[in-house]
Design brief:
Monomer. The chain contains 24 helices and 33 strands. Helix 12 crosses helix 14, helix 13 runs parallel beside helix 18 (503-510) and helix 15 runs parallel beside helix 17. Strand 13 (368-373) and strand 14 (376-380) form a beta hairpin. The chain has 4 domains: 6-179, Rossmann fold; 187-269, Orthogonal Bundle (6-phosphogluconate dehydrogenase C-terminal fold), CATH 1.10.3660; 307-322 and 538-748, UDP-n-acetylglucosamine1-carboxyvinyl-transferase, Chain (Alpha-beta prism), CATH 3.65.10; 327-536, Alpha-beta prism (UDP-n-acetylglucosamine1-carboxyvinyl-transferase, Chain). The protein starts with 5 loop residues before the first strand and ends with a strand. Strands 3-2-1-4-5 form a 5-stranded parallel β-sheet. A 4-stranded mixed β-sheet has the order 31-32-9-33. Strands 10-25-27-26 form a 4-stranded mixed β-sheet. The longest helix has 27 residues, at 181-207. Helix content is 37%, strand content 20%. The structure holds shikimate-3-phosphate. Shikimate-3-phosphate binds at residues 328, 401, 474-477, 479, 501, 622-623, 646.
Length: 749
């Protein structure tokens, strides 16, 4: 066993936080000796009886002698006095930390005692954890697990001290964040101190009314939720409000200003602006909730929050379904609606997280947007020059489309901006869009390790049009350049190696902007304007594809997907499935909102056959390959895919990740640089199990998760798919529809 982290630990104060940390130290064997000093003899006796400390002292001087770690776990206001008394007795290389909820005043107290030369081992800290009860008995070994601990190292703090404290808190299973002292106090003033102050204030306001009895008697859940924290300890909050006075007063000023704005909107009955404000706040709350819930996704380690389980057994697969709106079209409807003149109405909008990230970004840039509600969104366009600087970095979640298209738009704005994303997006190449934008005169940096996000843009550049030959078939890069071109001088033209989805071109025209398509060359003139319009978003063929494949591999299935977008730049999956012999018909073709749509009916009447997938269909089916690989595994004979290297830079490396999963499920396959070879296990006329089951890692990729779900229709063993939370980025109703069709998927959060 390795030596414990600390020789002798001295707690000064042993309440909830101190005694919880002592419990962690014992459980994790972090110290050879733990002692404490508190004013209450009973606490010391109890702590000894609980086995938390070896020695207890009423005088902190006795406790700190010879200690290599001293933890101040007492009310912040007592800090200076305690430091004065223990200072002469501290060991030379002692690590000195605290757990107080304000930091500036702890540092001030230390400076008053030590002078400007603070000890190298002094590193203030703040575990953000608490519980209903206080005292040595209330401590819990898991109090800090999955909670944040903020350390605020000072310029004088030594790395070894910070390192050891990080190890200590990590042993408590906390997430350690380092921040500077002022930032800590400012953040806490807004996120904790101001809400407490407001809760106390509201309860006080109501309590002072003459009819207070009635008010409290009839108060409902809203009041209860809002005022819960006003039940906290007045002494503690009194101390915190003084201790963090400057930052709290700033937060209160900000609150008063915002409140005055809200008051005025109500007074003036400014309906549109009020809806905008409330909608923005509501969306921000959802967005941040999601960020918090998906926090692990943003980290390097592989923590996932949801998994699917599918049991073996014969299944039928039938019904008529409407899958949600097209992701590509939904993104663009918000972007173009935002910079148009007038009000744009959108129906069929995809309420998935990717499109919502775009929506939130535009709200953050001052655009008033109502909805989405049942797929309806109303965007009050601000015109070509009306976007405002966002207050902070724009969070794009999992969405490459948002980041690449917005790169183009933001490069042309008057303000600076930064875009970030989750663990998957953070690995995706952004130089492919940054490079042509730089040629247009943009100041744009990909600040990640390998040309990856965050993307940082300096505004106020007058862009100039370019002719760009796209090195890869990418609708995102094409669109990003064309969007920058809206603000550029002269003509911006993109030539693509093969046609890719043309939703940007179509929708710009629908907004009244002239876009020319001559063969593979798409061009527009900068300096025009967009005029608001109505957008009807078709169902997403990329989501329909999972059900198409599910039906194609299941005996006797009969599935109709209604009103699916069949824009010819998206129908590769239909063509490829037909070439594989699927019983697939496209019915009831019509035009809706400028895009062709149709009902697609697929029946499981014959075994698919392996093919060499046509390379000219690759860009037209680019998102459907994970699902098509499942079809190929069920086909008779070999399927070969070439010319699809782009699959390696999608939400995951879709060639490798699919190959790994297929192999786990008993399918013989060989990934290649630009494709894959899959040995289909199907036999004409046989409909038995193809897959063996197994545990699949989806690598934060929605389409990997949904594709392997379809394998559940032909499996002899249980399939577990780990990390399925990203399914909500593009297809939030996926499991509900799969269940309806006859493929039960158990979802565990
Ligand atoms: C998209 C383009 C494609 C596609 C993505 C959506 C778009 O990406 O894979 O899901 O909306 O423009 P690439 O441009 O990287 O091929």
């Amino acid at each position: 066993m390795s030596a414990p982290l600390f020789e002798k630990v001295a707690f000064i104060g042993l309440g909830l936080i101190g005694s919880s940390l002592a419990r962690v130290m014992i459980a994790e064997n972090l110290a050879n000796q733990i002692v404490a000093s508190t004013r209450s003899q009973k606490t010391l006796d109890d702590a000894k009886a609980l086995g938390l400390i070896q020695e207890g002292y009423s005088d902190p001087i006795e406790a700190v002698k010879g200690a290599d770690l001293v933890i101040l776990a007492l009310p912040v206001r007592a800090t200076q006095k305690v430091l004065e008394s223990i200072q002469p007795y501290l060991s030379e290389n002692v690590i000195l930390t605290d757990v107080g909820s304000t930091k500036g005043n702890v540092v001030d107290a230390a400076k008053a005692v030590f002078g400007e030369h603070l000890p190298a081992g002094f590193v203030p800290g703040h575990p953000i954890a608490g519980a209903e009860h206080t005292g040595v008995h209330a401590g819990k070994v898991d109090l800090f697990a999955n909670h944040k601990v903020i350390l605020t190292p000072l310029p004088s703090s030594a790395d070894w001290a910070v390192e050891k404290l990080i190890q200590l808190w990590q042993a408590a299973k906390a997430e350690v964040i380092c921040m500077d002292v002022d930032k800590h106090d400012e953040v806490l003033a807004h996120t904790s101190h101001l809400p407490h102050l407001m809760a106390f204030n509201l309860v006080e306001q109501l309590a002072n009314r003459e009819d207070n009895l009635d008010i409290f008697r009839y108060a409902a859940g809203g009041f209860r939720d809002f005022s819960r924290i006003a039940a906290s300890d007045p002494q503690m909050w009194h101390d915190i409000f003084f201790a963090n006075k400057k930052a709290i007063l700033n937060a209160v000023d900000g609150f008063e200003k915002q409140l005055a704005t809200l008051r005025k909107l109500i007074e003036d009955e400014n309906s549109q602006a009020l809806m905008g404000l409330l909608g923005h706040a509501q969306a921000a709350r959802q967005h941040f909730n999601h960020m918090l819930a998906n926090k692990p996704l943003m980290e390097k380690n592989k923590v996932t929050t949801q998994q699917f389980t599918i049991l073996p057994g014969q299944k039928k697969f039938q019904g008529k379904f409407t899958v949600p709106g097209d992701k590509s079209v939904s993104h663009r409807s918000i972007m173009f609606g935002a910079i148009a003149e007038g009000t744009t109405h959108v129906t069929g909008f995809l309420e998935g997280e990717d499109a919502l990230a775009t929506l939130q970004a535009f709200r953050d840039m001052g655009v008033s947007i109502e909805g989405p509600k049942n797929g309806e969104v109303t965007i009050h366009g601000v015109g070509m020059h009306g976007l405002k600087a966002p207050a902070s970095a724009l969070y794009m979640g999992n969405s490459g489309t948002s980041m690449r298209l917005l790169s183009g738009m933001l490069a042309a704005q008057k303000f600076d901006s930064v875009m970030t994303g989750d663990a998957s997006l953070t690995k995706r190449p952004m130089e492919r869009i940054a490079k042509p934008l730089r040629e247009m005169g943009a100041l744009i940096q990909t600040t990640g390790e390998r040309g990856t996000p965050p993307v940082s843009i300096s505004g106020s550049q007058q862009l100039k049009g370019i002719q760009y030959d796209l090195p890869m078939a990418s609708a995102q890069v094409k669109s990003g350049i064309l969007l920058a071109g809206l603000w550029a001088e002269g003509e911006t033209a993109v030539t693509e190696p093969e046609p890719t989805r043309d939703h940007s071109e179509r929708m710009l025209r629908a907004f009244g902007y002239d876009v020319k398509t001559e063969g593979n060359r798409i061009s527009l003139q900068g300096g025009g304007k967009l005029v608001a319009t109505e957008i009807q978003v078709p169902s997403d063929i990329s989501s329909a594809a999972f059900f198409m494949v599910g039906a194609a591999i299941t005996e006797g299935s009969d599935v109709t997907l209604e009103a699916v977008g069949i824009n010819p730049t998206r129908t590769g999956v239909i063509e490829i499935l037909k070439q594989m012999g699927a019983d697939l018909t496209v019915e009831n073709e019509r035009i809706a909102g400028g895009e062709p749509i149709a009902d697609i009916r697929i029946r499981g009447s014959r075994t698919l056959k392996g093919i060499h997938m046509p390379e000219d269909q690759v860009p037209l089916a680019i998102d459907e390959f994970p699902a098509l690989f499942i079809a190929a595994a069920c086909a008779e004979g070999q399927t070969i895919l070439t010319g699809a290297a782009e699959l390696r830079v999608k939400e995951s490396d879709r060639i490798q990740v699919m190959a790994n999963g297929l192999k786990i499920m008993g399918i013989d396959c060989t990934p290649t640089d630009d494709g894959i070879i899959i040995e289909g296990k199907g036999k004409a006329g046989e409909w038995g199990a193809i897959f063996t089951g197994g545990e699949i890692e989806s690598h934060h990729d929605h389409r990997i998760a949904m594709s392997f779900s379809m394998a559940g229709l032909r499996t002899s063993g249980e399939i577990k798919i780990v990390g399925t939370e990203t399914v909500a980025t593009s297809f939030p109703t996926f499991t509900a529809l799969a269940n309806q069709a006859g493929l039960p998927i158990q979802v565990a959060e």
